[in-house]
Task: structure prediction
Amino acid sequence: MLTKEQLTSYQQNGYLVLEQCFSDEQMRSLKNSANKIVTNFDPNSTRSVFSTEDHSKTRDDYFLSSGDKVRCFFEEDAFDQAGGLKQDKSLSINKIGHALHQLVPEFKTFSHNNKIKSIAQDLGLQRPQIHQSMYIFKQPKIGGVIRWHQDASYFFTSPLSVVTFWLAVEDATLLNGCLQVQSGGPVIPLKEQFLRYPDDSTELKTLHDMPWPNDDCSKPLEVKKGTLVVFNGLLPHFSAPNLSDKSRHAFTLHITCANTQYATENWLQAEPSLL
Ligand code: FE2
Result:
């Protein structure tokens, strides 16, 4: 399905933007399904937020045992000082993770469709397997920042093989915090590794001290809904906070090659699904 030019571009840049890959109808169906999960979610069942800063024990238990479940995580700015939600729960969830591709029919069907499979194979993933799925809301006004990182830090394999499939369920713009990737410049080796120890403590270990790219070396990927962005696990990327009044929904899959060795120290040890 991918052309020679697209593959060359992926190899040179570490990412590829596939516009109009999926239909508005497919995006509507994923969005409805995600909204249904939020409707059925009891906001008093947890106060777990998704944050790169918060390493509290409560957050870790809820997060670390979510690899084979469907769980909602709050935005960091969802709560007021008294601990209550500042707005309706439907506008307070940061993301749903991490086994939508296995447990929710609409996401399961979508994740295993032939288009995803053929793109994965074209990108060189032999025996591609899905480890994780996330539905990300990037809520209006409070959608949090995601700092520079590389996804292979969380899905370490030997050799490295993880590819991220990032799908715009809604239009993504600079205003609502679109994905931004490193544009040009030297590719840095894996800079961090997120480790989970046998006692379930975790560490984001720094592997070298080469700096992250400057923000002015980033390329904002402003894309229409239905666009699929694929990028390799070493590509530095980030997204700015969403200060606009429009959400920026996205669905992501993390796919590795089953022929590579998946690290036992990775936080997520749930059984992957072969594509
Ligand atoms: Fe990422």
